[in-house]
Design a protein that fits this description.
Elements lengths: L1 H8 L5 E2 L3 E5 L4 E4 L4 E3 L2 E5 L3 E5 L4 E5 L5 H7 L6 E12 L18 E7 L2 E8 L4 E9 L14 H7 L5 H8 L5 E7 L13 E3 L14 H19 L4 H32 L27 H22 L16
Parallel strand pairs: 5-7, 5-13
Antiparallel strand pairs: 1-6, 2-3, 3-4, 6-7, 8-11, 8-12, 9-10, 10-11
Helix pairs in contact: 5-6, 5-7, 6-7
């Protein structure tokens, strides 16, 4: 609501349900499914399915995520998802009926977040609005063929098998769940650029830095990236969009990459924490901490102001020469980092 209120205060038109079917990066413009064509100074591709024409920079935000046409436009090819070897069963429902069960009642009598870890599995549960909103996400090993979908129905019998050895309290809540979704967790390799050849289409959020659920940073990093891009556009000025977009990607890449890798590290430590207990080993509390405290004191706008002069000088030289340095060089096929 804070975001929507601010959009309204600025007088920015917000168009819902407008599916982008075509980009012209040199105009630049987007074509909607209904045939409408919208022109702008810069196009930003984010995550979702909305277009937002902005007035200050004549900006179009086409929200479309990792499956977007804009991502393919920027890359010059359609990159395929890679299986992470994991999937998530996830459910969201009104949990007030759980109050009738003394075993799991405690999870719906107040707002809370809880995490359980097991062998090659972990479960995150949270409750809001006195049980009116209840959800759980169960991450587990998965070897099925990749089907990258957010809406694939899950097998509740398989879910109940996975929670057999978990805390009986959360297992009871899961068993009372009527249905869930099966979400395959797929990797996307870091990409060499977030900006099109014309420098006028820029990717943002899941389009360019998708995070694992264990990162708990997808929306946060997208918001930071948006703040940085907005400030870069302001600092560069309306007539220098290429400088703004190219500085933006250079400012953001290393931080978002570190945040992505942090999610992999957390998952791996959680899923292996119990494996040596049968040999008499004890769990080191430090080994199950999220280790992401470094993320929180960061001020994206202050960092942009501090680094703008240095990075914009580098980018100006690259734009003048036409030789733009890649953000990331993919490893050869079959080679792992």
């Amino acid at each position: 609501m804070a975001f929507l209120d601010r959009v309204k205060d600025l007088g920015i038109p917000l168009s819902m349900g407008c599916n982008v079917v075509e980009y012209d990066e040199y105009a630049p413009s987007i074509k909607l499914e209904n045939g409408e064509v919208h022109h702008a100074d810069v196009i930003i591709a984010a995550d979702g399915k909305i277009t937002i024409p902005l007035s200050s920079h004549t900006l179009l935000t086409a929200l479309s995520g990792i499956k977007s046409l804009a991502r393919e436009l920027v890359l010059g090819f359609q990159d395929k998802p890679k299986s992470s070897g994991y999937a998530c069963f996830r459910a969201y429902f009104k949990g007030v009926h759980l109050k009738e069960d003394p075993v799991c009642r405690e999870f719906v009598d107040h707002d809370c977040v809880n995490i359980w870890i097991g062998n090659d599995v972990h479960l995150v549960q949270n409750t809001m609005n006195d049980g009116e909103e209840f959800n759980w996400i169960l991450t587990h090993k998965d070897t099925e063929d990749i089907k990258e979908s957010w809406f694939q129905p899950g097998d509740m019998n398989a879910v109940r098998e996975l929670v057999t050895d978990l805390d009986p309290r959360i297992a009871a809540a899961v068993r009372k769940t009527k249905e869930c979704l099966d979400w395959k967790i797929c990797y996307r390799d870091p990409i060499p650029t977030w900006v099109s050849r014309s420098h006028k289409v820029a990717l943002l959020g899941d389009c360019c830095h998708p995070h694992l659920p264990t990162s708990a940073q997808g929306a946060s990093q997208a918001t930071e990236s948006a703040a940085v891009l907005a400030l870069c556009l302001k600092l560069a000025g309306k007539d220098n969009v290429p400088l703004a977009t190219r500085v933006y990607e250079k400012l953001r890449f290393s931080r978002t990459r570190k945040s992505q890798m942090n999610g992999e590290d957390i998952r791996d430590r959680w899923h292996n924490a119990l494996k040596n207990l049968d040999e008499g080993a004890e769990i080191d509390p430090e080994e199950v901490k999220m280790r992401n405290r470094w993320l929180y004191p960061f001020d994206a706008e202050a960092d942009t102001m501090m680094r703008w002069q240095e990075v914009s000088l580098v980018v100006s030289k690259e734009l003048e020469s036409g030789d733009i340095t890649d953000l990331f060089t993919p490893l050869p096929e079959g080679v792992q980092s």
